[in-house]
């Protein structure tokens, strides 16, 4: 995994042994997200909301803004009836952007949490979390088993 910084946002680039369409599928359905991030429910279509559960720590909810064959964009939101995680309110106004490109015999994932910068109180915890979940994606595609929350 290669970490880079664009305007201070959390970013990661991963070269993965997967077809681009298989990699993007991990971001477009509750089943796909559950395999690497955590137990997920909801709707992965544009305008839908995906809810990721972190047990006693609460839930993250993201509204799907864009789903294209090579790009997915989510907007963190507070969903009615859910207990937000401790960093949910800091994530409001940010976007989570995924781009997938064919690369050699696999695909390259460009992940950016736009607006998640060192200025936020959750920066250290969120960077550690995203690094864990990027490693979960890599493990899932290399071994068939990811490390989502609760696994």
| Class by alpha and beta content | alpha+beta
Average pLDDT:
94
H-E string: EEHHEEEEHEEH
Q: Percent range for helical residues?
A: 10-25%
Distance between the termini: 22 Å
Q: What is the tally of beta strands? A: 8
Features:
single chain; 151 residues; alpha+beta; 8-stranded antiparallel beta sheet; 4 helices
Short description:
The chain is an alpha+beta fold.
Protein described:
This protein has 151 residues and is α+β, with helices and mostly antiparallel strands. Helix content is 23%, strand content 37%. The protein has four helices and eight strands, in the order E-E-H-H-E-E-E-E-H-E-E-H. It has helices at 20-24, 30-34, 88-91, 123-143; strands spanning 2-6, 9-16, 40-42, 49-53, 59-68, 71-77, 95-103, 106-114. The protein has an eight-stranded antiparallel sheet. Strand 1 and strand 2 (9-16) form a beta hairpin. It is globular. The protein starts with a strand and ends in an 8-residue tail after the last helix.
In terms of topology, how is this protein built?
Blueprint: E1 2-6, E2 9-16, H1 20-24, H2 30-34, E3 40-42, E4 49-53, E5 59-68, E6 71-77, H3 88-91, E7 95-103, E8 106-114, H4 123-143
Antiparallel strand pairs: 1-2, 2-8, 3-4, 4-5, 5-6, 6-7, 7-8
């Amino acid at each position: 995994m290669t970490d880079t910084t664009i305007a201070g946002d959390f970013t990661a680039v991963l070269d993965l042994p997967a077809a681009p369409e298989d990699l993007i599928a991990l971001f477009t359905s509750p089943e796909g997200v559950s395999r690497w991030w955590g137990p997920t429910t909801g709707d992965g279509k544009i305008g839908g909301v995906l809810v990721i559960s972190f047990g006693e720590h609460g839930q993250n909810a993201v509204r799907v803004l864009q789903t294209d064959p090579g790009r997915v964009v989510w907007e963190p939101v507070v969903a009615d009836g859910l207990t937000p995680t401790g960093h949910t309110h800091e994530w409001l106004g940010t976007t989570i952007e995924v781009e997938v490109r064919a690369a050699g015999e696999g695909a390259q994932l460009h992940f950016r949490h736009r607006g998640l910068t060192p200025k936020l109180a959750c920066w250290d915890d969120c960077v550690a979390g995203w690094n864990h979940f990027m490693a979960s994606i890599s493990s899932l595609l290399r071994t068939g088993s990811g490390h989502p929350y609760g696994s």
